[in-house]
Amino acid sequence: xxxxxxxxxxxxxxxxxxxxxxxxxxxxxxxxxxxxxxxxxxxxxxxxxxxxxxxxxxxxxxxxxxxxxxxxxxxxxxxxxxxxxxxxxxxxxxxxxxxxxxxxxxxxxxxxxxxxxxxxxxxxxxxxxxxxxxx
Length: 135
Fold this sequence. Notes:
The chain is of the alpha/beta class. The chain has five helices and five strands, in the order H-E-H-E-E-H-E-H-E-H. The radius of gyration is 13 Å and the shape is globular.
């Protein structure tokens, strides 16, 4: 696993409450949809990032991280591993504090680059699984 328990806890409790969820659309059958709902239940503002820029769970969507007109704290990535690295780089450019790659999303080079840029990062884990454990 990439990201120890202390990093998981820090991202979930100290990194901030505005989460950009890349890959989140209004498709209720996708994992991102359910995870975003859990994050909201735990007080996170979930900002959908998807080419369709759909409003999801009451939050306006944006086509890319760069299109979001405000700061985001954490970028949660629900895309295939081969697309995830550039999103991590965009998160660094956006000024996020942390990047979270979902279960099955693995890019070791992106992990190294993101950590080297000073961001916290977790890879191949799910915040909807981890956040209830903190209580």
